[in-house]
Amino acid sequence: MDGSTALKYARSRHGTNGEASDFARSRRQQNILVALKEKILSLDTIRHPSRVNSIFSAIEKHIQTNLSLTELLVLARDYSKIDSSQIVNQILDTSVNSPLYATSMNGAYVILPKNDDWTPVQRLAENIFSATAATDSFASSTTAPYFVKVEIQNGTSISGLAFQASQILSAQGFDVTKIGNAEDRGFEHTVIYDLTNGEKSKELKSLQNILEAQVAMSATGWIYSSEIVPKEITVSDDSYESKTTADNIDFLIILGSDNADLVRK
Questions:
Q1: Full-model pTM
Q2: Which structural domains are found in the chain, ordered by start?
Q3: H/E/C letters for each residue in 179-215?
Q4: What tens digit of pLDDT does each residue of 175-215 get?
């Protein structure tokens, strides 16, 4: 394809069959770079000084380098020996086998690690040139470490808020047992009620990070919780079980209007 077509291929955001995402666009851009490398380093190009000089003149306005044309030609000669099939391409996306998922928080589109676990991404970065390590890293993210039962109540008048939150938390590995509406629909801030007396503080911290929520727990739970900063906790002796409508719940979440952006537009 010519340059104009290549730009359309690399920049398009309106494709079909899964080609409309930014991740698909990144893959197409990688294809362009590999094809460009093959074209530039081919013998038909390298053996013609005029073509090399033309390419150098075209790109020198867009890059900064302290390499001379001669040095670039030496690099081109060495890189021409590289087998493209051995190049490892890594793309962090939100596919089924990826350790990441997409959501919306505070009005922004964000990508977060499943199960609030950055380990697979860190492992990928440490083994960036190993295709096998990347596959293993992604595969390891599909198992959910949590066995935590959550009830979600919509404390606002925003339709679908509890359902959207349930989708996000389920993707993180939480067992959303029930969703519904709270008796009080005037919550401004999302509150997580800890019914475990601090026994699952890491999971509580994960929920708090995902929803940017306030935390309410018993005095006993506050004593044994080491994951939550004290100023982020409301301590009370109230019986939170009375607010739940399901049995054997670890955490009750009442959504406030500060999480309105969870509803996809």
A1: 0.46
A2: 3-86 (no CATH), 100-142 (no CATH), 149-262 (3.30.70.2390)
A3: EEECCCCCCCCCEEEECCCCCCHHHHHHHHHHHCCEE
A4: 899 999 999 999 999 999 988 888 888 888 888 888 888 88
